[in-house]
Amino acid sequence: MRTQQRDRLLDLLRSYGSCAVAFSGGLDSSVLAKAAVTALADRAVALTAIGPSMPSDQLDAAFDVARLIGIRHELIHANETSDPRYRANTPDRCYFCKQTICRALRRRADEIGLVEVVDGTNADDHRGHRPGMRASRELGVRSPLAECELGKQDLRELARSWQLPTHDRPASPCLASRIAYGVPITPERLAMVDRAERFLHERGFAVVRVRLHEGELARVEVPLEDLPKLLDPELRAALAAHLRACGFRRATLDLEGFRSGNLSEGLGIGD
């Protein structure tokens, strides 16, 4: 990563005077939070919006990373499932979710006197179907990583230079991204997916998606290189039993392996 990009990011953050960082604890938001506290010290606060669509292990990671960075960290409640437009689960569901979250972030930022709300959108995020980005822009949320033309590889390099544990962490999008469009989103279904994926994470699978389709069908995706491990008879039987216990009626294994955003395939909207 070019030094001038890092310096440009720090200068941009300083120009805000103060900011609230939308903080998930993943790569993008951890780099942004580190940059914000470097540039603004105690005038930067990390805010984590918690709700039913957040993977349970992501919150643990957010606490650990915020503590390591040394930034003030607060939780705010953003009950995205209260919006019937979000629950309907159309291809624009992320727009309604992001509206709810950004409004909650802005309210808290105003309460504690912070000028800007910033998120971890980076220069590579403008590809594909991103309705949530439209909601962020409409509500005045800034995206300093994208403004400074920092892409995913730049962020990994910067995270390594700052010794952040997120430099090689795989993406962990919200649980609603696992539910097929048209299948209503409920807290119960989100919890089913969370429990199923956590089961596999605890058994050494770093990248997992348990997609939920109509009829409570689970479609399990892991990278192709992990398929032999998942087909171990003992593990396969334990997973099948666990999925039934979670509430799934049937389970399938996707033989094409993990593909980010594949629920959008066939809709003509990218990933």
Structure in words:
With 271 residues, this protein is α/β, with parallel strands linked by helices. It has two domains: 3-168, 3-Layer(aba) Sandwich (Rossmann fold), CATH 3.40.50.620; 175-264, Alpha-Beta Plaits (2-Layer Sandwich), CATH 3.30.70. The protein has eleven helices and seven strands. The strands form two sheets. Strands 3-2-1-4 form a four-stranded parallel β-sheet, sandwiched between helices. A three-stranded mixed β-sheet has the order 5-6-7, covered by helices on one side. A hairpin with a 3-residue loop joins strand 5 and strand 6 (217-221). The longest helix has 19 residues, at 93-111. It is globular. The chain starts with a helix and ends in an 18-residue tail after the last strand.
Question: What layout of secondary structure does this protein have?
Answer:
Blueprint: H1 3-16, E1 19-22, H2 27-40, E2 44-50, H3 56-69, E3 72-77, H4 84-87, H5 93-111, E4 116-118, H6 131-138, H7 144-147, H8 152-161, H9 187-201, E5 209-213, E6 217-221, H10 227-230, H11 233-246, E7 250-253
What overall form do the CA principal axes indicate? globular
CATH architectural designation of the largest domain: 3-Layer(aba) Sandwich
- Round the mean pLDDT to the nearest integer and report it: 92
Amino-to-carboxy terminus distance: 26 Å
* CATH-derived topology of the largest domain: Rossmann fold
| CATH superfamily (homologous) name of the largest domain | HUPs
Q: How are strands sequenced across the largest beta sheet?
A: 3-2-1-4
Q: How many beta-strand elements?
A: 7
CATH class of the largest domain: Alpha Beta
**Approximate strand percentage:** 5-15%
Radius of gyration: 19 Å
What does the main sheet amount to?
4 strands, parallel
Structural class: alpha/beta
Succession of helices and strands: HEHEHEHHEHHHHEEHHE
How many alpha or pi helices? 11
Total domains: 2
